[in-house]
Predict the 3D structure of the following.
Amino acid sequence: MTGIPEDDVLADEFAVPEGVRPVVDRVLTFIEGEVLPYEEEHAEHVGGPLEYLDEDGRMTPEARALRDEIQERAGEAGIYALHMPEEVGGGGLSPLEHFYVQEAVFRHGTGFGSSLARAVMAWTEGPSPALLHLDEGQRGEWLDPLIDGTESACICITEPNAGSDVTAIETEAKKDGDEWVIDGHKRYITNAVYADTAQVLARTDRADGTEGMAMFLVDTENPGYEVGRMNENIMMDGITADVHLEDCRVGDDQMVGGIGDGLPLALSWVNWRRACRPGMCVGMGRYLLDRMLSYAKERETFGEPIGSNQAIQWPIADTATEIHAVRNMATTMLAEYEGMADLADLRQPEAARRRLSMLKYYPEDRLFDWSDRAIQVLGGYGLMRAGGVERVFRVARNLRIPAGTTEVQKRTIARTLGLE
């Protein structure tokens, strides 16, 4: 169920700039021509959690194979890594241009577990701007397979005792001859179950504090890498788990950048996710608005469509207005950000960090409101999986935690405004 009406009354108001329109059209054509028919063909593995999760809360092999297939097809079509520079095989889109692609993809719903549309576009499992700090010799082995969608990754930052405070990580990397030996425990790692490459943040024995942190690339076939218990979460994604690193040996050529670059590299990855939030939120917001409008016009009570009642009209009007506001805020701020910094930069100016924090927390909070309203408008049907909106509600609630909580974003905003 895409929820996209044939008579889109707001199409002109949510126009895509001419410069990026051909790319958005290519992505939508791919979704409509390749993904949706494939999804329908394999519907028994794609629907609700009972279809795509096994008894351990893990995505079934069949469901995962479907996602991998779409990801690889998107890679072959040249649309999977549109956010990465052309010189490394990506599409060369700026964060602002990529906003419109994400908006289009997520308008087809959440794409988490229940839909294959999200597999068209690199998310946390894909190549990030942080990996642009790999040297030429490393890129062929570690970056190229992520760009073309034939492999996937996970990033191992969070630990049982280190969440928002990344500086509190305990995972250690000790030098042993020409190798590094990594030992530690990571938690809430998205795609840990299926990743081919793990990007692991660790403390080294070469310096104190953040100056001693480094980012290592670990082949998940490494005997020192082990997926732990599943982290069954509100999104029911089936791919998040603990990671155990024990006597995990890697070479010097598996370090990204140098010692002391670990924390900035981790934050570079986080900043990429923050810059992607508004496109996701506006896209899902438009999906919710479509569902509300459709239901309000079709559902009747007491002989009239429920959309004739102000109690139904007002939450829809509020949502339409706020989607406009968030979309305009996002496109303005992303354009401003591009004049200040690049997502691959390991050091971000205060004004750039402030905008990234605003772009993360505010759209997420609004998406949560929109999804709550959508459930209320749809009533009992909104609580059902078939309604298509309860899933967005779960995703919206989740988004306010990863890549920096709402509270962390507000603290950053306050501090960059001089409030120490």
Q: What stands out?
A: The radius of gyration is 21 Å. The chain has a mean pLDDT of 94. The longest strand covers residues 179-190. The chain has three domains: 21-147, 153-259, 263-416.
